[in-house]
């Protein structure tokens, strides 16, 4: 369900990392007090913490469970609602989690929309009532999102773009087992 990756990888990294992320941000839900800078006695300074509002989140295919937790948990811990668009290649993880989400949160707090970028992602980015976009994906799409954010309500944008993990295998670096070494 988590994009066909090996069971050992999902069990060894994805599930524990997602659980740790949710526990971490869940622990911050009532501890996010902030700091107020001290000012002169004749002045008054205070800090007000308010949720951003509706956060549109678009996640990639490579770590559907971890990326979902990494985006949704901090948004919820700080009092926001979420509209999540999982990658069209890996929607089943988000759909599976819906059964738990609906048991924990009131309707409308976490919303999952399925589909392709132009039909679902772009309307999320352009919607004037969505106050923040968190996107992980290509640099080209990230640039479009950033440009569009200033065209309606100047929404907050967080981008994680162009992640690559290139490997080069060279014949002169064979290990004693006869396998090529990754450089």
From TrEMBL:
Pfam families: Aldedh
PROSITE patterns: ALDEHYDE_DEHYDR_GLU
Positions of transmembrane segments: none
Domain Aldehyde dehydrogenase: 2-169
Catalytic center residues: 160
Keyword Oxidoreductase: yes
Entry superkingdom: Eukaryota
InterPro entries per UniProt: Ald_DH/histidinol_DH, Ald_DH_CS_GLU, Ald_DH_N, Aldehyde_DH_dom
GO MF annotation terms: oxidoreductase activity
Keywords: Oxidoreductase
Family statement: Belongs to the aldehyde dehydrogenase family.
Protein name: Aldehyde dehydrogenase (NAD(P)(+)) ald5
Lineage of producing organism: Eukaryota, Fungi, Dikarya, Basidiomycota, Pucciniomycotina
């Amino acid at each position: 369900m988590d994009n066909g990756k090996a069971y050992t990888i999902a069990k060894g990294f994805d599930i524990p990392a997602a659980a740790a992320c949710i526990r971490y941000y869940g622990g911050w839900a009532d501890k996010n007090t902030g700091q107020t800078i001290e000012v002169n006695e004749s002045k008054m300074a205070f800090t007000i913490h308010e949720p951003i509002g509706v956060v549109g989140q678009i996640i990639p295919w490579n770590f559907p469970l971890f990326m979902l937790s990494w985006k949704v948990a901090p948004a919820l811990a700080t009092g926001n609602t979420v509209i999540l668009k999982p990658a069209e290649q890996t929607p089943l993880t988000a759909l599976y989690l819906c059964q738990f989400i609906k048991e924990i949160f009131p309707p409308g707090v976490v919303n999952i929309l399925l589909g392709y970028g132009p039909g679902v992602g772009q309307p999320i980015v352009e919607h004037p009532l969505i106050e923040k976009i968190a996107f992980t994906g290509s640099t080209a799409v990230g640039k479009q999102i950033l440009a569009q954010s200033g065209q309606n309500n100047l929404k907050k944008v967080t981008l994680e773009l162009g992640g690559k993990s290139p490997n080069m295998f060279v014949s002169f670096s064979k290990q004693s087992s006869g396998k090529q070494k990754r450089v």
